[in-house]
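Risk register update: the risk of archive-format incompatibility is retired. Evidence:
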Amino acid sequence: MLRFAALGLLLASAVTLSSSVVVLENGQPNLWSQTASQVTELPTQDGILTPNPWNYLNRQSLYRLMIAGTDPYLTYMGTTQTENPFWGLALQLGWMQTSGRLADPSGSTTCGLQTGDAMCISPESFWGCMNYFTSTLPFLSAAQQGFLGENIQLKLQVPAGVEGFCTTYTECSASYSNAMTKWDAFFQALKPTSESTLPDNEKKDSILGLYWTAQMATTYSSSTCSVKKSHYSAEEQSFADSWLDSAEYVAAAHFHSNLEKSVLFLNPLPSRILRAGDASPNIADLTEEENYSLTIFSWMKNINTILGGSMVRMWKGAMCSVTTREKGKELLEQLLTNPSFPTATFLSFITEMTTAC
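Archived output:
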């Protein structure tokens, strides 16, 4: 616990010094102490667990419970208590909430606003919609595979009049069979991988590969959320597209989305919704780090578009081995967090590694 606390203080200090967005409180995602630490703390009706994924604390609880349920099978991932890849999604949800991206963008309700229900997640939010799938689908799969306890019955709550969101394992498997199959494969692999005699780095790469395969399948399944982008400025829509594109790179590199690494990537993301006229790197009320991250996200998206999508394809081709994926992770970290890193190096690496593969 001392090691966890020390890490928390270090990361919290880094956040305070370098960005206005707050993604950590005492070394944990925002309001983590108010989330459920046991499945029995979730809402229940007639013996069925009924968490409300449209409430921030309930949705964040899904991540906390998945982390607790899978941690025993991920000891080979690293030396700290925060190596679980689900920390990345938990922190991402915290960033969305803090930056106002879970609030109702249509302005027709006060859902998610400090003047209304600050814990409310609006079904009209593009960000909240996308995150619905990356929280509920793996949670339902984890319960089905026995990682939350025995004989768990689950039915997620849904706001009155809201449609298009599955609420049970059976429902989600029918509507999003590919994503649910991939999550099932991830959870089913946890125990045998932890017992494998393979070197830790190979076990880590293998399980992260399954994790990212499931997460990307979920992202593709949630494409119906795209219509909700119309509520936002062209600048925010462009950022959202760039954000989605960036997932292709981190997924192919089997990025280890533990708490420490995820903070590095989330810390410089824009601390508010982008407005018409915002143009990085000269957005006055955003930090230098936020302006830089927006510029890099835009550069990556634009270069890939100019090349007809070939940059993403080449990157995926270059991520052909444990060794190249390790190099790829280091390169992405430099590109996204180091303003002095030359973008030409990124392009030359892709060409070199593609040839080597």
